[in-house]
Amino acid sequence: xxxxxxxxxxxxxxxxxxTRRWLRPKPSPGGWLSRRTVVAWVLIVIYVAxxxxxxxxxxSMLLDLQRREFTFFGTTFxxxxxxxxxxxxxxxxxxxxxxxxxxxxxWCGWACPQTVYMEFVYRPIERLFEGGARGSAQLxxxxxxxHPRRLAKLAVYLVISSFLAHTFLAYFVGWDQVMHWVFxxxxxxxxxxxxxxxxxxAMLLDFTYFxxxxxxxxxxxxxxxxALLDNDSLIVxxxxxxxEPRGKGKERTGKGDCVDCEACVVTCPTGIDIRNGLQMECIxxxxxMDACDAVMRKVGKPEGLIxxxxxxxxxxxxxxxxxxxxxxxxxxxxxxxxxxxxxxxxRDAADITLLGAQGAPFTVQAGTVMNSLRVRVANRTGxxxxxxxxxxGVEGLSMIAPLNPLRVQPGRTETMPLFxxxxxxxxxxxxxxxxxxxxxxxxxxxxxxxxxxxxxxELHEAEEPSGERGR
Length: 471
Fold this sequence. Notes:
Layout: H1 31-49, E1 54-55, E2 58-59, E3 61-64, E4 69-72, E5 75-77, H2 82-103, H3 106-111, H4 113-130, H5 132-141, H6 148-173, H7 175-182, H8 190-210, H9 212-218, H10 221-228, E6 235-238, H11 240-243, H12 263-266, H13 287-298, E7 306-309, H14 311-314, H15 324-345, E8 350-356, E9 362-365, E10 368-379, E11 385-392, E12 398-400, E13 406-408, E14 413-423, E15 431-439, E16 445-453, H16 457-462, E17 468-470
Antiparallel strand pairs: 1-2, 3-4, 4-5, 6-7, 8-10, 9-10, 9-17, 10-14, 11-13, 11-15, 12-14, 15-16
Helix pairs in contact: 2-15, 4-5, 4-6, 6-7, 6-8
């Protein structure tokens, strides 16, 4: 059976017979490409440098999943910092919404790692080994998938992907630990070795095979843009009124400025024709702008046939920067991020958590009730502190704490076991509330209520004096 042929190309990366259309975009030098190159390499340097930079004695970024500690720019967040992490996440989302409302898909075209590494690392290497976009297309036509030049390219891809994967792992365990693992046996660190191997393979498949499919199929941003953008959002747009109708050569008499050279299509990394209007696949990389400007200069026409504009401006309505979403988004961002900064600036120097016993909550012997509990102390400061625990609120109470005071290193969390005894008659309805006081000797003081469990008074009176009871 012969597969049916579609009446025209359905997707930019599909041929009419449904086979994969490999895109080999031709780079278009220009002012916008130069700017994006600078931005891209600054971002690459930042990505590689972050695990090596320390702030206040801490890595600038370390996502320690094992200890559940997350360090951003020298500030460590603990699992108990739920409010702070939530405020930071909401602030990031609002910032993305605001950037999209003002400048369209500026993230996709200028800062997304997929775009940065694909267009400024992997594709330049491909052109170097395969003879440019034309050489790559020739190898595609001849189906020379295992040509020596392509095998050499894949070898370089493997080295780069492995380096990026090791850098990625350093965000979670630190660069020193990564280096220790690199020069050690994989059997000594199977989890880290597996993560690096899988990440390397994923990057190699991404930048070798999937490429623009990640933006067009996997990434949801293109589908979100209908909700994130409005008619006044800045987009890469073709001036239809100026360019149409198109014409080539002598046919251009009485035609628009577009000479129908398709330079904008040849240079597009997602294979679209920007002249068809705003499309889901467009990542706003501005390559079509540089290509079109070069052609306009050659034919003596003004630049900007394809430019940053808005749908409202192209329709002759002007562009309005102040509108509902560009007012509400900054206000929401200021409120949420301001709350985050306030909470961060005034959070306690330590985080104290009271935990109950893992076994029986209490035991009774000779009219005395014993409770066991744990005091978990997270030191948020940059210095070691000794935390002293005391319990107040009941006469006749005694406390046994083998580790009191508890010494905690900066940024670490330690747990102190406590055993509290008090007379059985101190309990009412099986409960007695006490105050747990924690100090560090340098001014930090916190008091937390804790409910000790015990027998009900009626049950206690009914017991034998020498009886023993647990619940």
